[in-house]
Design brief:
Shape: elongated
Protein name: P-type Cu(+) transporter
Oligomer: single chain
Subcellular location: Cell membrane
Strand content: 15-25%
Bound molecules: adenosine-5'-diphosphate, magnesium ion
Structural class: alpha/beta
Largest sheet: 7 strands, mixed
Radius of gyration: 21 Å
Organism: Sulfuricella denitrificans (strain DSM 22764 / NBRC 105220 / skB26)
Family: Belongs to the cation transport ATPase (P-type) (TC 3.A.3) family. Type IB subfamily.
Length: 290
């Protein structure tokens, strides 16, 4: 595109809350045929709440929530915030934790009163050789909820289901992107059953689930290796390598500084429709030179 077209395009973008880093990003955006979208915080609101507390192995709701909140004190994860605010609103004060560890993409662990506990994905519990109630887990996941498992060293003490609602704008934005010839693929560290339920709600036909934070960029590289021009939209620190790997990375809305730094385009509005706007803007800019 001509320098004038680029300037006009960039200026129009800025007016619409679409901040484009450079001319190359503006030109590439219009060629995107595949858009990978982070689930948590991008498709969904990113403010999950605890919806179900299911004790197991002789535990009770109060104990389960107290132990879970105790472990989550040291975590920055949105799921941790959900657990801590549920505990607070039920008047449960977390206890002290030692040997705390955050297990990236899996959960948290630590010792309470000298005994080890873990809280995390069903995959983490399985990894630790724990026996999971698959029926309970599957029932909750089919509702689009994330299930985390609280366990002692030897036994599962219960399950917490945590729901994160879709943004109102997500369904319309996905529909619009599809109509523009852009395939939308959801990317998440969450399990496949939860991902499938959310994908159906959002109108998304394809997703990559149970992807560890360090593997997200590799999923983008695989798509690029198929010759596709790939966009990636996300907001988290976890998403930064994938935003860099993509042909065009979009940092969405209230995104972290790390995501914004990694991205080619920053969207002021926390809304997937802005990605569609950016692609439209690029296509219009490219048309002006032909
Ligand atoms: P996402 O791609 O949705 O941001 P993450 O990679 O951050 O997902 O986490 C993947 C999964 O690991 C979560 O769905 C959850 O099961 C588990 N997990 C990660 N962090 C925590 C935590 N602090 N507490 C409980 N579970 C966690
Ligand atoms: Mg995330």
């Amino acid at each position: 595109a001509t320098p004038t077209a680029i300037m006009v395009g960039t200026g129009n973008g800025a007016k619409a809350g679409i901040l484009i880093r450079n001319a190359e990003a503006l030109e590439r955006a219009g060629k995107i045929r595949t858009l990978v979208v982070d689930k948590t915080g991008t498709l969904t609101l990113g403010s999950p709440t605890v919806t179900d507390i299911v004790p197991a192995g002789g535990s009770d709701e109060h104990t389960l929530l107290r132990l879970a909140a105790t472990l989550e004190q040291g975590s920055e994860h949105p799921l941790a915030k959900a657990v801590l605010s549920q505990a607070a609103s039920t008047g449960i004060a977390p206890a002290a934790v030692t040997r705390f560890a955050a297990l990236s993409g899996k959960g948290v662990s630590g010792e309470i009163d000298g005994a080890p506990y873990s809280l995390g994905s069903p995959a983490l519990a399985a990894e630790r050789g724990l026996n999971i109630d698959q029926t309970t887990v599957a029932r909750l996941q089919q509702q689009g909820k994330t299930v985390v498992v609280l366990a002692s060293e030897k036994a599962v003490l219960g399950y917490l289901a945590i729901a994160d609602a879709l943004r109102d704008s997500s369904v319309g934005a996905v529909k619009r992107l599809k109509a523009m010839g852009v395939e939308v693929i959801m990317l998440t560290g969450d399990n496949a059953a939860t991902a499938a339920a959310i994908a159906v709600q959002a109108g998304i036909d394809r997703f990559f689930a149970e992807v560890l934070p360090q593997d997200k960029a590799a999923e983008i590289d695989k798509l690029k290796a198929q010759g596709l021009v790939v966009g990636m939209a996300g907001d988290g620190i976890n998403d930064a390598p994938a935003l860099v790997a993509a042909d065009v990375g979009f940092a969405v809305g209230s995104g972290t500084d790390v995501a914004i730094e990694a991205a080619d385009v920053t969207l002021m509005r926390n809304d997937l429709a802005s990605v569609a706007d950016a692609i439209d803007l690029s296509r219009a800019t490219l048309r002006k030179i032909r």
